[in-house]
Amino acid sequence: MTPNRELILELVRQNNWSGSELARRMEVSRAEANRFLNNKRVGGKKLMSGIVKAFPNEPIERLFILP
User: What are the pLDDT digits (tens) for 6-64?
Assistant: First the structure.
């Protein structure tokens, strides 16, 4: 399972969130959120659970690319 980075970037833009705001909503460090946004980090349990926390109204099937 891989985060759907393009969708997440679009959601961040639509909500007019900064990297800091995304990190706050994901409950991860700002550095962690920025590494993901800049395509330097792909995943991990903490990052994946943070994505779900930040976008609770989005279906899992949209947030992640399933194998």
Answer: 999 999 999 999 999 999 999 999 999 999 989 887 778 899 999 999 999 999 999 99
| Segment holding 32, helix H or strand E | helix 30-37
Q: How far, CA to CA in Å, does 22 sit from each of 28, 38, 56, 66?
A: 9, 13, 13, 23
Tokens of 65: 């690319």
Q: What is the dihedral of CA 49, 4, 58, 61, to 10 degrees?
A: -90
Give the bridge partners for 64, in sequence order: 3
Q: How far is CA 36 from CA 32, 43, in A?
A: 6, 8
22/19 Cα distance (integer angstroms): 5
Q: How wide is the angle at C-alpha 5 spanned by C-alphas 3 and 26, nearest 5°?
A: 70
Q: Which two tokens stand for residue 2?
A: 């891989």
